[in-house]
Amino acid sequence: MLELEKVTTGYNTKAILNDISFTLKKGDFLGIIGPNGSGKTTLLRVISKILKPWEGKVTLEGKELDEIGHRELAKRMAVVPQRMQELFFSYSVKDFILLGRTPYLGRFQLLENEEDLRVVREVMEETDTLGLEERNLEDLSGGERQRTIIAQALAQEPEILFLDEPTAHLDINHQVEILNLIKSLNQRKNLTVLMISHDLNLAAEYCEKLILLKEGRVFQEGLPQDILTYKNIEEVYKTLVVVEESPVSSRPHVFLVPSKTKEKRGK
Amino acid sequence: MEKKVKRWVSGLGLLVLLLIMVSILALSLGPARIPFSNIFQPQGIESIILFKIRLPRIVLGFMVGAALAVAGVIFQGMFRNPLVEPYTLGVSGGAALGVSLSIITGFRILPLAGFLGALGAISLVYFIARRQGYLRISMLLLIGVMISFIASAIILLIMSLSQEYQLHGILFWIMGSLEESNPALIKLTSLIILIGIATSFFFCRDLNVLSLGEEEALHLGVNIERTKRTLFILGSLIAGVAVSVSGIIGFVGLLVPHFMRLFVGSDHRILLPTSCLAGGIFLIASDTLARTIISPLELPVGVITGILGGSLFIYFLTKRTLRLGK
Q1: Which residue of B has its CA nearest to A163?
Q2: A47, A72, A89: which to substitute to probe chain B, counting the most B Cβ within 10 Å?
Q3: Mean pLDDT rounded to a whole number for chain B
């Protein structure tokens, strides 16, 4: 449904992404990995129409993003940004999630209607945020806050959910909680998920397919076990690792090799 | 949801009631005191005092107060910055410069000069901050502040070169006053301000979304460039019109939105209309104080808004925890 064709873009005159092509199909759970500066977040910007491609094109079901208005796009694709900006005003959890209905509300419609409230109730159930309803966003724990942000994105009733490092700054219990939630949305509702991650093991564990970026180009695309090999990681991340199969899920698991890194390089 | 709407309606109702009470008080008080009982059945000269002098002043006070408060809500929301006020972006500096120039050149229509000055300053700020079709919020703010500084420097220059009677005129205008004898001007001002406020009301939800951040607003489908542009023009226009007729009346645009946030929260759908009413009420009340406290002399109303508003705000701030972001 979402297709990138030879997309090149960047900021000012500096190209960050070069010649990127890939396709996201309905129901996919695709992970995007790569070291800092490899263009992960720029990719998010070009797909969410914040940045225009200089060359190539991004199409959603055959239609170029340029032809799709922001409102229309917001009904089909929701973005969970990496770190939400410091909120200037305080919002209750429910009011914050209700903002997700924005693309459905008309200019002269001041209040949300029954349908909006129904959708919000539903996503709050799904994300287990009903109990937080009246709490203020800034009083929530990291995990609760992230669930609330995801609930807002789901209130847009998107076909594609695009997450930028949804587990950054979370403890492992919350990491697993969030990713289980996303996985279940992907499986139960056939929601298409695109997730940027810098945690290789979480990406391997949850994504069906991975794209490894290196310096703004697609280095390799494929199944987690084909992407996460010690060779690839050494070449892209310049780090020595050992990759083993996880005894739990038989997905690849990356082990760091402390201190020896330097010795080996010295040789 | 029902509960929320009910709370909103009762808040608005309370403010309307307060507005009526303050207006009646303002009609009654002054050098010639008119008893409440006579307000609805004025006798002889009282009717002239009420309808030719006090009522127009109350109407103007309400309009200017409402305009400044709404412009404050718009700019604070749009810039995500609690210290921004309607004057920050050069509106007042431009208007004051226009008025100063017109006073030393002997041009008589001060409100027009003020409005042209404000318009000039805003346009300058807008076109400098706009690059490649993008309106950069941080640029807008910095350039607005700089244009204000430049304008006040030029005003000081003009003042240092002007005659004593001209100096007095400039100073008097800068201090701000609601004394305006031309009913046509009051009507025109009211009309523009009302249209401006009514239009901005339909951007409340956009202000809510913008407060999440620009990219986040874009993700939610808001056309942020158009929204920022519209909000900037709306806010500047109503603040510019208010400044041109009343001079620089401080604190209303900064404090009233904060005050209302303490009571009704930060949802702009309720914050904007309540600030509009509260701004009007606050200015009518301040003006009534200003003209009665050392009657028959008048104090500049800006002195009252500053002292009264500032101390009231500090009082409430220490009484309740204000949530500005944390």
Answers
A1: B219
A2: A89
A3: 88
Give residue-wise pLDDT tens across range B99-133. Answer: 999 988 887 788 899 999 999 999 999 888 887 67
Q: Kindly state whether B38 is in contact with chain A, defined as any CB-CB distance less than 8 angstroms.
A: no
**Helix B224-246 vs helix B183-201: crossing angle, to nearest 10:** 160
Distance from CA of B203 to the nearest CA of A (A): 8
Inter-chain residue contact B323 with A107, CB threshold 8 Å: no
Yes or no, beta carbons of B208 and A99 under 8 Å apart: yes
CB within 8 Å: B220 and A103: yes
pLDDT, tens digit (0-9, with 9 covering 90-100), for B50-94 = 888 899 999 999 999 999 999 999 999 988 888 888 888 889 999
**Interface contact A99-B212, CB threshold 8 A:** yes
Q: Is residue B253 part of a domain?
A: yes
Dist CA B260 CA B255 (whole Å): 9
Evaluated on CA atoms B208, B212, B214, B220, the torsion sign reads negative
pLDDT at A168: 87
- Say which CATH number the domain at B166 has: 1.10.3470.10
The answer to whether A135 contacts chain B (CB < 8 Å) is: no
Contacts of B100 (CB under 8 A, 6+ apart): B154, B155, B158, B159, B170
* B157: in domain: yes
Q: Do A112 and B323 touch (CB under 8 A)?
A: no
For chain B, what is the domain count? 1
How many beta-carbon contacts under 8 Å exist across A and B? 83
Find out whether B299 and B93 touch, Cβ atoms under 8 Å: no
CB contact under 8 A, B213 and A84: yes
Q: Are A103 and A71 in contact (CB under 8 A)?
A: yes
Judged by CB atoms within 8 Å, which residues 53-92 of A form the interface with B? Answer: 69-75, 78-79, 81, 84-91
Domain-wise residue ranges, chain A = 2-223
Q: Which residues of B touch A87 (CB under 8 A)?
A: 211-212, 325
Please report, as a single letter, which amino acid is at residue A33: I
Task: Kindly report, residue by residue over B124-159, the tens digit of the pLDDT.
Answer: 998 888 876 778 888 888 999 999 999 999 999 999
Mean pLDDT computed over B247-253: 89
Whether the CB of B266 is below 8 Å from some CB of chain A: the reply is yes
Residues of chain A with pLDDT under 50: 266-267
Q: Which CATH class is domain A2-223?
A: alpha beta
In a domain, B49, yes or no: no
